[in-house]
Design goal:
Pfam families: GerE. The protein is an alpha/beta fold. It has helices at about 20-30, 40-45, 45-50, 60-70, 90-95, 110-120, 130-145, 155-165, 170-180, 185-195, 200-210, and strands at about 10-15, 35-40, 55-60, 80-85, 100-105. About 50% of the residues lie in helices and about 10% in strands.
Length: about 220
């Protein structure tokens, strides 16, 4: 691989950057580039600084990372993500929860294959299995077909507030606290939002907001 064309940095998001991560060490060695470790707290504090960087995430630790900091906005499209150590075929909602998913590697993939794919991502290419690509294409085609007239969606100011909170990864309880309303009221608003947008869940609502709400 031609190392001189690499410009962007791949960061390994982990619970403790002082711990040993043998698989990441092997990927780093095969890639021929350093993969700095970054913890969720550090990532949150320097979010603006890191928003254009690529996050490497071990799928086995994904839920733990999400629960470490509840506001960890991995579903935000500004974060490019590479997921490895996946042990099964993921649902479309799971794939969408990784934000701007650039690459996915299964547990039995060879280290060289993972390193090569990471190199392609660093060079601004995608490296997704064919079935994963087909899932995402099917989802986005359906989303486009069902949302061809977003201007006609009659959202209230409060519903837009809640949609923007969803984009940050906030839970129902956090939204209630931030807006000084009950969690029941948040759920009621979400029901109306999902109905108006013709979506089934938070992930699809966030996807709609990312495409149609101005920053």
């Amino acid at each position: 691989m031609a190392k001189n064309i690499y410009a962007r940095t791949l960061y390994f998001l982990c619970e403790n950057k002082e711990s040993n991560y043998p698989t990441v060490d092997l990927i780093e060695e095969a890639l021929g580039l350093p993969i700095p470790r970054i913890e969720p707290q550090e990532f949150m504090l320097a979010m603006q600084q890191h928003k254009h960087k690529i996050l490497l995430i071990d799928h086995d630790n994904y839920q733990t990372l999400n629960s470490t900091i509840r506001d960890l906005p991995l579903s935000n499209k500004i974060f490019e993500t590479v997921i490895f150590n996946v042990d099964r075929r993921l649902t479309t909602d799971e794939l969408l929860s990784f934000g701007h998913l650039k690459a996915l590697f299964y547990r039995d993939d060879e280290i060289y294959h993972i390193a090569y794919g990471c190199g392609e991502v660093i060079n601004s290419h995608n490296w997704l299995p064919r079935k994963v690509t087909a899932q995402l294409l099917h989802y986005y085609r359906h989303a486009f077909d069902s949302q061809t007239s977003p201007a006609t969606v009659d959202l209230t100011a409060r519903e837009i507030q809640i949609l923007r909170s969803l984009q940050t990864g906030a839970s129902n309880n956090q939204i209630a606290d931030d807006l000084f309303i009950s969690e029941f009221t948040v759920k009621s608003h979400l029901y109306q939002i999902f109905k108006k947008l013709s979506v089934k869940n938070r992930v699809q609502a966030i996807s709609w907001a990312n495409q149609h709400l101005m920053s």
